[in-house]
Design brief:
The chain is mostly beta strands. The protein contains 1 helix and 11 strands.
């Protein structure tokens, strides 16, 4: 289920996956958000938010993080308060990357993986990554601000074959058709 062009304010991106078998190294996934300014909406990100950081103004943060997938349901959560972002930001891209040590690992190597994007109780996107079996990272959602200041949600499932660092640099260059 996805919506395109839906006005949004405060959004949660939730991630789940099953832990790796006991005899294997843990699967470690991360939600990553990149922010872009009005003068370079497809350029370099102004800042990046991931498990070890938050936005400078506190509008994007991760209240829940997992390095193993262990737990019930969605074990990693990122909160984006788009309606509080400074007017200089016009685009935010959110993605998911699989750590590659000791790699390589793809979405096809995971079981019960999935992402859910919600605003309150409204489901904006739900995906199980099944079409990304050969990918090591994916964009999930794009949020864009129009001239009136309204933020819109766009589903943006697109696979990448890169580690988290390279993915972070490339994920914002994707343009919606």
């Amino acid at each position: 289920m996805s919506s395109t062009g839906k006005s949004v304010g405060k959004v949660e991106v939730k991630l789940k996956w099953d832990p790796s078998p006991w005899s294997r190294p843990p699967h470690h996934l991360d939600i990553i958000a990149t922010t872009y300014s009005a003068d370079a909406p497809y350029g370099r990100p102004v800042y990046v938010v991931h498990y070890d950081s938050r936005s400078p103004d506190g509008t994007i943060n991760m209240p829940r993080h997992s390095e193993t997938g262990l737990g019930f349901g969605f074990v990693e959560v990122m909160v984006l308060e788009l309606d509080r972002l400074a007017p200089s930001f016009t685009r935010v891209v959110v993605g998911v990357a699989i750590h590659q040590n000791p790699g390589p690992k793809t979405f096809g190597d995971l079981s019960n993986a999935g992402v859910l994007v919600v605003e309150g109780y409204q489901k904006l996107l739900e995906d199980d990554f099944s079409r990304l079996a050969e990918s090591t990272a994916t964009t999930v959602a794009e949020f864009t601000r129009d001239a009136s200041g309204t933020w819109e949600f766009h589903a943006m499932i697109q696979g990448f074959d890169s580690d988290p660092v390279d993915f972070t640099a490339a994920m914002g260059s994707v343009r919606q058709p």
